[in-house]
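WARN retry 2 of 3 for item q-0093 after timeout on previous attempt; input resubmitted unchanged.
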Amino acid sequence: FSHRWDISGLVHIAGRVPETISGARVELYRGEGLIAITTVGPHGHFTFKGMEAGDYEINLVWLEHGSRD
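OK item q-0093 returned
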């Protein structure tokens, strides 16, 4: 049987959640393939639910200053 796991994280820089991080894209890769995408919530958290155990890479796509500049 195969166990499923939730993979979650918190984005913070120098101990603080950046104000513009909400909505940033988080990509989950296994091997060479992109297998899931989620977004960062307003408090810096993200979660991928129901993933199989394995080796993953996570890529954060975030423009630090957003579109307000």
